[in-house]
């Protein structure tokens, strides 16, 4: 399996990606995004919303997605300014 195939896993991936982009738009750092994603994934694990294999695959995809700097768009559209502090 190279991509998510379970409809619930796809919905969770989209929801988490939207939330992380929203946080990035508000100038949260990559480490803060990672903390949010870890909490989200932990809650999914605890509630057993997904089967074990779909959960594991979702976690792998999110890990790669967060580490990829091209995955996010900065509020001004410039990828180089994505994680510059605009909130202080």
List strands and helices in order, with pairings.
Layout: H1 7-25, H2 30-47, H3 52-67
**Principal-axes shape call:** elongated
SSE succession: HHH
Tally of DSSP β-strands: 0
* CA(first)-CA(last) distance: 43 Å
How would you sum up this structure, described in words?
With 88 residues, the protein is mostly helical. The protein has one domain. 60% of the residues lie in helices and 0% in strands. The protein is built from three helices and no strands. It has helices at 7-25, 30-47, 52-67. Helix 2 (30-47) runs antiparallel to helix 3. It is elongated. The termini are far apart. The relative contact order is 0.18. The model has no long low-confidence stretch (mean pLDDT 83).
Summarize the structure.
The protein has three helices and no strands.
Q: Keyphrases for this structure?
A:
88 residues, mainly alpha, 3 helices, 60% helix
């Amino acid at each position: 399996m190279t991509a998510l195939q379970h409809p619930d896993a796809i919905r969770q991936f989209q929801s988490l990606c939207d939330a992380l982009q929203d946080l990035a738009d508000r100038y949260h750092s990559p480490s803060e995004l990672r903390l949010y994603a870890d909490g989200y994934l932990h809650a999914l694990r605890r509630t057993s919303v997904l089967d074990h294999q779909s959960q594991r695959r979702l976690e792998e995809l999110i890990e790669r997605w967060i580490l990829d700097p091209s995955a996010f768009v900065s509020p001004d559209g410039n990828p180089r300014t994505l994680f510059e502090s605009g909130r202080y």
